[in-house]
Each structure stands twice: as structure tokens, then as C-alpha cells.
Design goal:
about 85% helix
């Protein structure tokens, strides 16, 4: 999604540069003194500089937008990570695992990815430990109840 936005902005910049470069008016040259002959050479240079600056400004704008979007996505991911931690603390392991699985589709920083992987492993271990504990209690109840 972000790449598509960047490509659209760059395409528009390229198109505007092309239009600026191709929109020179052709007029019949009029005889001019030697001092005025140098002015037309300065005009295309100024136009070329403007045309070169337009894509650069658009690229900077696109980069700023991409950075803002990445920061926003990182903040959303962090809030989900915090939510998962709270669910783990409340022993709501399946809900925590569900939240952590939502993060799989998000772009995470390397630190966030490591944290999510660690939390997933922790939740899976806690779920297995809880299941084993319940199974042991059930077997203990059956064995103790038969006496």
C-alpha cells in the first residue's frame, strides 16, 4: 500500500517534469544583439533546474509520508503487543495468542518481531503447561477417587 502511494507520487513527478520539459513554445527567432543571445541559454538551464527539483521535492514528500505511515503502524503494533502482555498476565492465553497472530500481518521492527516471537513461545508453553496440569489433576482425581 505504501509502495503504491510512493510509485503514484513518483509517476506524477515524472509526468510533471516531462510536461515542463516539453512545453517550450517555439517562436520564430528574431534578430537580437549578442548580449540578448546569452539570455535564452540561461532560461533552459533554469527550467531544467526547476524540473530536476520537482521530483526531488516529491520524493522527499513521499519519504516523509512513508515514514509517518511506518511510525503509525509501529504504534499500532506496539499497542497490540501491550494488549497481548496484559492478556498473558490475566492468564487469557488463547486471546493473547489470537492478538499475537494479528501481528503476523503487520510490518514490525526487528525488536518488535523478536518480542512477538518470544511472547508466542511463552504463551504456547503456558497453554501446554496448563493443559498438562489439568490432565494430571484429572488422572489424580480418578486414581484417588477409586479408593
Amino acid at each position: 500500500m505504501n509502495i503504491a502511494k510512493i510509485l503514484v507520487v513518483l509517476a506524477l513527478c515524472g509526468l510533471s517534469a516531462w510536461i515542463v520539459g516539453c512545453s517550450k513554445k517555439e517562436e520564430a527567432p528574431a534578430p537580437a544583439p549578442a548580449a540578448e543571445m546569452q539570455k535564452p541559454a540561461e532560461q533552459p538551464a533554469a527550467e531544467m533546474q526547476k524540473a530536476a527539483e520537482a521530483p526531488k521535492a516529491a520524493a522527499e514528500s513521499a519519504t516523509a509520508a512513508a515514514t509517518e505511515t511506518a511510525t503509525e503502524a509501529s504504534g499500532q503494533a506496539q499497542s497490540l503487543i501491550d494488549k497481548a502482555k496484559g492478556l498473558i498476565d490475566n492468564k487469557q492465553y488463547s486471546e493473547a495468542l489470537s492478538v499475537l497472530n494479528q501481528l503476523a500481518s503487520m510490518k514490525l521492527t526487528p525488536e518488535q518481531q523478536k518480542l512477538v516471537d518470544d511472547l508466542k513461545a511463552q504463551v504456547q508453553k503456558l497453554i501446554a503447561d496448563t493443559a498438562a496440569s489439568k490432565a494430571t489433576e484429572s488422572v489424580g482425581g480418578l486414581l484417588g477417587g477409586g479408593k
